[in-house]
Write a structure and sequence with these properties.
Layout (H helix, E strand, L loop, with lengths): L4 E6 L1 H9 L3 E4 L3 H13 L1 E3 L5 E3 L1 E7 H4 L4 H7 L6 E5 L8 H14 L5
């Protein structure tokens, strides 16, 4: 059994509560800082029971206010592969709709129609 970790990237006031429950919290105030953090977290590995390198993180969450400004090419490249899943969550300003928009694209690609 693998024990993957979860990370969150966002402004300090958003991520502190997640840190209290054991989630790796990375502070970022700009989209560039957030992209750099995602790349670093995505490259972290641990050894599994067979002594093979596996991704440390199963999920990397990033606040919508930072993710909104990511270049599309960078997000496509970072989202390749099974793990980690990169999810957007609302920040202190509330939801921008980015998370639902991305989920709609995933659903449409999977089943051929956006049912959301």
């Amino acid at each position: 059994m693998n024990n993957y970790s979860i990370a969150i990237i966002g402004q300090k006031d958003v991520i502190l509560g997640f840190k209290a429950i054991g989630i790796t919290a990375v502070s970022a105030t700009t989209s560039e800082e957030a992209l750099t953090a995602i790349k670093e977290l995505k490259n972290e590995t641990v050894k599994d029971s067979d002594n093979e390198d596996i991704p440390r993180y199963a999920i990397i969450m990033v606040t919508e206010d930072l993710a909104t400004h990511f270049p599309e090419d960078d997000m496509k490249r970072l989202s390749e592969g099974m793990l980690p899943a990169i999810l957007t969550i609302p920040g202190v300003q509330g939801s921008t709709g980015l998370g639902m928009k991305k989920l709609g694209k995933i659903v449409e690609k999977a089943i051929g129609s956006n049912i959301l």
